[in-house]
Each structure stands twice: as structure tokens, then as C-alpha cells.
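User: I need a structural model of MCP methyltransferase/methylesterase, CheR/CheB with PAS/PAC sensor from Desulfomicrobium baculatum for a docking pre-check later this week. Nothing fancy, just the predicted C-alpha cells so I can convert them on my end. Input:
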Amino acid sequence: MTKKYSPKQKKPASAASNTQTSIKPSLYVAVGASAGGLEAIEAFFSGMAPDSGMAFIVIQHLSPDYKSLMVEILSKKTKMKVLRAEEGMPVLPDNVYLIPPKKNLSIFHGKLLLNDQEHVKGTINLPIDIFLRSLAEDQGDKAVAVILSGSGSDGMRGVRAIKEFGGMVMVQSESTAKFDSMPRASLSTGLVDFILPPEEMPERLLSYAKHPFVIKAERSETVISDEDALTRIFAILRDKFKADFTYYKPSTVTRRIERRMSINRIDEIRDYVAYMQNFPGEAGTLFREFLIGVTRFFRDREVFELLKESWLPEILNRSAGKESRFWIAGCSTGEEAYTLAILAKEYMLQSGINRDLKIFATDIDRDAVLFAANGVYPDSIAADVPQELLSKYFYRKQDSYQISRNIREMVVFAQHNLIKDPPFTNIDLISCRNLLIYLQPVLQRKVLEFFNFSLNAQGVLLLGTSETIGEMGDCFESLDHKSKIYRTKGRFKHSLDSHELPQVPGSTYRDLGSRFPVMRRDPHVNDERILERFLEALSADNFPLAVVVNEQMEVLHVFGDTTGYFKLPSGKLSRDISKMAAKDLSIPLSTGIQKVFRKQEALRFSNIKLRDMDALKVVDLRILPLPQKKGQEPLVAVFLEEVARPDILDKTQAIQAYDLSLEAEQRITDLEQELQFTRENLQATVEELETANEELQATNEELLASNEELQSTNEELQSTNEELYSVNSEYQSKIVELSELHNDVDNLLNVSQIGQLLLDENMDIRRFSPKIAEVFNVLGADVGRSLSDISHQLENADPVRIIESVHRQGKLAEHEVRAKDGRWYLMRVVPYSVGPRVFSGTLVSFVDITRMKLGEEALRASEEEYRALFETLPLGVVYHEADGSIISANPAAGRILGLTLDQILGKTSMDPRWNMIREDGSTVAGTHHPAMIALRTGHKEGPVVRGVFHPEKNAHIWLSITAMPLFKPGESTPSQVYATFEDITEKRQAEQDFQTLFREMFNGFSLHEIICDEKGTPVDYRFLAVNPAFERMTGLKAEQVLGKTVLEIMPDTEKFWIEAFGEVALTGKSSKFEQYSSQVGKRFQVTAFRPARNQFACIFAEVMDGEGVDNAVQPTAQAS
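Assistant: Understood. Predicted C-alpha cells for MCP methyltransferase/methylesterase, CheR/CheB with PAS/PAC sensor:
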């Protein structure tokens, strides 16, 4: 796994000068970028002031095999000093530090540290996350993260760390990023402060750095001192999110408020209150600031190793025969809950045991709970999850990982307020890590009391490494002090009220609860206290037996003595009230409860006789639906009261005398109906599972194909990398060769097949190659003569005038010239340069281009012929470049697609407007269009049938597409691809109509294949196809007959009919006759004909009584 720096691994080198490091940057800005990030980095630093007082550390994904030129490139974009990071280098203001290749960068006490990257198979290196985590831990609220263009999710975890320690986060807007994966991953955390294009970031960053709350050391008192404003902020959050932050630690609350004020450029807290009221979205942002949940899989790995080795086995081993229950309080986005589930599953598999484990994962943040319940995490989790567990309990989903279903089903996620909502009960293990540190001591004690109440005997409590049980030592004992693992000593009652917090004097902030009653009182809480006091005061003398039951018939709460009415059944514990109830009470109780749930009306049965030991008593049964709010579980209350005098009844209530036989009959009817519904639901579920299984198999095949393509792409990239190495080596050797060849120009002139003529500034001949004699009538003795004195063979140009013009203007000139013998030359005249804008003559060359000119003429004629064919071809034809863009299309293509040529040209397969689909309706990704497959594989693709959206018809049309790659000579990679297609929509619709007619035709239809012996005599025939009418008329299902012979289905079939049908199949003569089927007991009028060689088809209709002649009518042959 990728290493993260910790002080124990490496200590920074001591600084050479204390005065050098005495100047501290106002902010430490970490800039993370990957693919497409160079332009964004340049835009960012081009607008950044060189004297901002901030320090900048740039973290990129660099190739380990090439020298980085970032220092040279970035130095041209900023006046700040640009340095490559070195071991122990102090970070100074107004400097830019760049990560070197092959290294991970971290910071400790303001100094940079380097660690070698580890490239282990199956792991990924995340240098941005590594540095951001160390920066957050080292600099706290002075840390700033800037995430720019890049692929993958590197930086996402680092953003969480920056926010956890009070820093600020800026992310490049997705629309401006060349690769938006990294910005999108950071944005998914919901913790980003600014979303801006890179060029707009410097101005906002400078504004943030100059805010009073950022530059002042003493700033928290400004917020705390304004009690009215702070109270209004708490009230807004409580009203909107039902969360009271009054008893959160003042430092936490004020730091979060100050940061939001800094980001929104607000100096006064009263102005910030007004801002929250005018912009409701700000309350949600501040709420998320308070609830920053920094978590990851296997966080603090040594703690989870200890749990796995010691306490998980102990808990699971003692829970045989009953459900084990874990509670992850403050689960954030669910990583820790899934981690515990994975560890428990691993232990059960290794130990060969099976336990019923339920993990409750709760958090007050609804968005975090929904994210956790979805179970999809970025690919950066590969740095936290061991490879064997990653492959075992996760599966790839595009660029993310999805938790496996067997782990997901172990965890129940729910939104839950740890302070106000009732705690879970019968818990074996509670994990609440790094939540108590944000609470005041009084609130910490209340939470720990809840945990003590929730835990079973010997229950285990896991806290964060910075948390302790404080004053709750009488309730918990330490199992491992370092890992903060505790065990409950048992349940104790404490004087602290479980619904109302006391006033805590000692600071202005803590007195807010007493000064502002609205923050302290909750009418709903008072109502609950009154209800509790009322129920405690009731006794069995003035209150009947009452039981609260849910729709699953489970008992949730019992008031009163159940003796004589209920008892625990033997075997596995069940809360089903019908199984607990006495035998004489079970039927009326279950019938009545279901009736109340169904009708939502109160019900009363009277005169129910129960036998208790030897005594007989009469009871009244009342069942009432409990009031229900939106989102609440439906409940009913069951009241049982023994009747002392059955003749005295409340005449005002509707009373129904209980009739056992009537209720039993109704109960049986209800159970039969419920059984029928259950069977139908089971069948539907089976069909859905079969469909889902097929889809999963198809998805698996696609994933396997994608994996093979990725492997192929990786091999191509490796090959390209090797080619680049070769090219680089060739360039370096070329430099040496060119310096050596400079002295050999004379020899080259003599052997060159190009006519070359070197003239001085007076147009006197200095040198020439033998080939020039084809153009000018020169001899060796003509060196030194003026070119104007030499005759030439050109008939359509004056070379002397052309050369004079070049010598005068100092610019190259090229002309195609023709000699008197019909040969063509490319005449190129170049000024002979001896320095910047200093020329000393001209160099004239003549290249024989006769073949090229002839070829151009032939090519022009061929192109005209091709263009005529291209324009008139009825098939649509488009040409794609190697990058996938369309560079040419014929008119038929536009006509078929419903687009103009301008709308087609330039489009790529990645354009979503194609909306290409397969025949099963699934979407075809741009990379899987036939043209893209042909480009990628270098092989012909198709013909394949695909649907493409037609804008004029506002519907999909169906095309038969074939794609063919084109190669340049000597190359194995396609340079272009052309795709041809035709519209088969009408043909496809006709086929579908025929199939529909086949299925819906009234008469029965069957298709058969005749079976002959070695002599060619028909001996049997096989069923190939039948329509629904055949099934309806014969009572035989398609799956019963298809692929089988008639003798397998109807062994008593007479040989006569086999021979009759054989004659139709072998001779082609159709027949019409009546046939009686003893197996189905019906007579049919049959028309038989031959649709194909050795086949016959039958169309038959049932003959009603009185319409036929005989049960055995001979066939009547007719001409086919």
C-alpha cells in the first residue's frame, strides 16, 4: 500500500539557518493536478501576485521515466521563485515548490520531506492525498487545497482532511477542466468552498487570505461575544436540520463560522446572520461544516487489527443462537461500518461459523447516510483496502468500487440524532470515533450514558484515539488504553436527565442556554417526560394489559402483567404476538390485529373465554390504531381486560361478540388470500431474479471484454513509450551526425539527384551539382560567371528574375516549372543566411517532379470518378479521422440520418446526440460504435444493427452498419476508417409485423422437419415452431414439443399421417384434410404445405361437432 508520512518514519534535516525559516507563509497552498492540468496550473500562477505572502506546493502525477520541465515552464508564468522540492527544504512565502518524479511529498513542521513511491501490483499511488493529509495535520487552518484538472479521484480524501483541520478548498469547475474526474471526485464530498475556473482562483484566494479572521491571531472572541447573533445562528440550524449545536465545543463552532464568514467576505457576525437568512443554502453549508466526517476504510489499521484478533471473535463466539448487534454512531459516509462488516465476515469464514450479525450505522447528516447506503466509493479506496479484500468484497463500477451485496445486507443505515433520538438497545459493540472531541463535557457524559444503556453485559465500546471515557469510569473498564477500547461494567442510573441538558456556567458561550430559553426548551421533550411520568404512575389496578404491535405482528412494548395471556414459546425466540398468545386468544388476536391494520378502525371483541389452569375467565379484547405521522411505522395497541361482570358493558362503544367459528372461517379466508398473494409475489420475484441474473451475466461479459481492451491499450501505451525512447535516442544521434555531415556538403552536391545551384550576392555561380545541367547549360568552367549569362531549358518561367526577387526580399520562393523536354521541376530559391537577417547569396534547387505531376493528373481523374460514385451512392458513407471525428460524408448519409452535412462533419462517436442503441434497447457507449471498434482493433466491424436517433422523425431509425479501417503504407495502426450504412427500419418493422402476425394469428400453426430412414422413407417428424393458437387449441405448450418428434410426444401416431406429411415435405405438394387427435380429443381441418426443403408447415382449425365427416378422413392432395 502507499505509505503515508508520519513523524516516526523520518525526521526532517535541521535547517542551516534559523533566520531563514523565521518567516512563515500566511497560507500554505497545495495545488494538485494530473492529466490536462498543465494549462490550468499556468492560468492559476499567471494571475497570482508574486508578493502574496503565501507559499505554493504543486503536486502532479509525473512520469517516473522522463525529466520534468515544470521548473522551466512555470518560471515563465510567475515572478515567484520556482524550486524543485528537496529533502528538509523549508517552505518560505512567495515561493513555488514542485514535487520531483518518483517521489511522494509531505510536510512536517513547515519543512518538505521526500519518500520514494512504491509501485506494488494491485495498489495505486496517490501523491496529492498523501501531501494534503500531511499538510492538514501540520498547518491546520493555514492549509489550502486547490484541485485542478486530472483523471481519477486523487485529492478527494485529502480534501476531507483539509476541512477536518479547518482549512479551505478550491476546485476547478468541471466545465473548464480537460479531465474532470479529479474535480468531480472532490466536489462529491460536499466540502468545497469555491468552484472556479483557474484564472479566477487567484483573486478569491487573495481576498480570503486578507480577511480579518484569517490574519488575526485572536479572533474567536469576536464571534462568542455577540450572543444574540450566535443564538440566531443556532436557531436557524435547529429549525432547518433539527440539530442543536449549543453544547458543541466553542472552538469548533466559532472556527467553522469564522471560515464561512471569511469565504463569503463578511467581517461582522450580524451581517453573516442576515446573509444566512437571505441565502438559505448557506445554512446547509454551515451545517455540513459542523459535521465534517473524515473517515476511510481501515482508518487506524492497528485498531482494527486488534479488534479482529481479540474482541470480534469474543463477541461473535458468545452470540451463538442469537443476533449480534453492532452500532456505528456517527458513521459519516459508511466506510467504518463496512470495515467492521468485512472483518466480521472474514472471521466467520475463517472460523467456519455462521452468525446473525446486524450493524446499525447512524449519522445526523442525511446526505452522508444516503451516500453510505449506496455503497459506491471512488477508486482511491484501493490505497486503504487490502488487495485481497478489495477483490473479494468490492466490484468495479466504471471508475468506482461498489460494495458487494453480502456485506451491504449486513449494515442498516439510518439518520439518527445521537443526542435527541432514543439509543439502540441490546448492542454488543459500539463504535463512536472522533465525535466526542467536538462536544462539551456535559454532552460527552450524556452520550456515554446512552452507550452504557445500549450495551449488553460485556459489551465493547470503541472511541477515537483522542477520546476518553472521562468521568464515566464507574461504567466502563479499559481493555486497551492505546486503542481506546472499553467494556461496560453494567447499567447504572445517573442523575443526569436523558432529555434535558443542565446549565453549565463558566464561560459566556456556555451560558447561552440559560440566557436564551428557546435554545434550551423543547415542547416535544416535555411532552415525552409527562407521558413517562404518567405511565410510571399507572398500576395494574387502574390500567389493563396493553401491548404495542407493528404490521409484522411483532411485540414492541408491553404494559402490565402478561400472566395467563402470553408466554414465551420454546425454541428460537420470536416476538410474534400470535405465537406468544394463549391458545384460546391466538386466533381472535391475530385476526383482529390484521383487520385493524387493514381498515384503520378500532375493534373490540367481548366474551372471549380463556382457560387459566383450572379456572375459566372472560376477557375483553380492544385493538386501536395508533396515530401515525408521515414516515412513521404503522402501529396498533392491544388492550386485554378481564371482565368481572360480563353483563356490564359500555353501551357507547361498538362491541362485537366474539364468534370463534366465524372468526376462524374469516381467518382461513384471509390466510388463503395471503398465501395466494405470497405465491404470486414469489413467482414475480423468481422471474425478476432470473432477469437480473441474465443482466449480470451480460454485464460480466462486457466487463471481461472491457478488461481485455484495457489490457490491449496498456500494451499499446507501453509500445508507444518504447518508441518515444527510440525517437529520443535517434534525435540525439542526429545532432552528432549533422555536425559531422556539415563538412561533407561538397560530396553530397556531387552525388545528389537534385539539381543544386549556389550563387553569391551578385548572382555569380559558386557551386552546382551535376544534376543542374538538366536545367542550365553549365560546365565546370562556368563557376564565377553570372547566372544571367547562362542559358536555360525552362519555357514557362524566368529563373533569373525569380532569384533576384528572393535576393531582394530575403524570402524563400517555390515554383513548379516545366522544361522544354516536358519534364517538371520544383524550383526552390532560398536566401543563403550567414546571420540574423544577413544573407550572402542564394541556394537554388531543382527537384524532378515529373512523376508527381503525372500522378496528380491521374489522381485528379480518379478523385473525380470517386466523387461521382461517392455522391450518387444510395448507401450512407462517412469517413472518420484517427481521433474519431467525421471528416467527410456523402449526401445519402445526411438523407438517412436527417442531418445536413455541416451537422455531420466534425462530430465524433462520443457526441451524446447520436444516442446509439442496440436491438435490446441498451445504450451503446461512444467507444463501442462500430467505427471506433474498427479504429481500435484494426479489423472490419460489422455488419451490425444499431439504432440512431433521427432528429426529424424524433425517434430512432435502425441501420445496418459496417466499418472498415484504412491504413497508410507500412503502418499497422489505422489512420482513418470509413463506415457504410443503410436504413433497415422498414425492413425490420416488416419482420416484427410478421412475427406479431405469427404470434397473434387465430388459426394454429406449426412448422416441422421430416425425418427419414436410410432409404429415404419418412419415419417421424420433429416440431420446429408453433404459435400461441397451436398451444391454445391443442393444450400443448411450446416448451413441451419444440425440438421433439411426434412419436416422442404422441407415440400412438399412425404411420399413415407420417407418410402423408412426408409426401408434402419431400415432393412439395400441399394437402388439405381433416385429422383427429386422440391425445387432445379434437378434430382439426389441416392445410399442409412445404415452406423449405425437407420441411412442412400446418395451418389448422378446430372442427366443431357436426362439421366433419369422419374421425379418419383420407388426405386430399392439391397442387402446390
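Before docking, keep this in mind: The mean pLDDT is 79.
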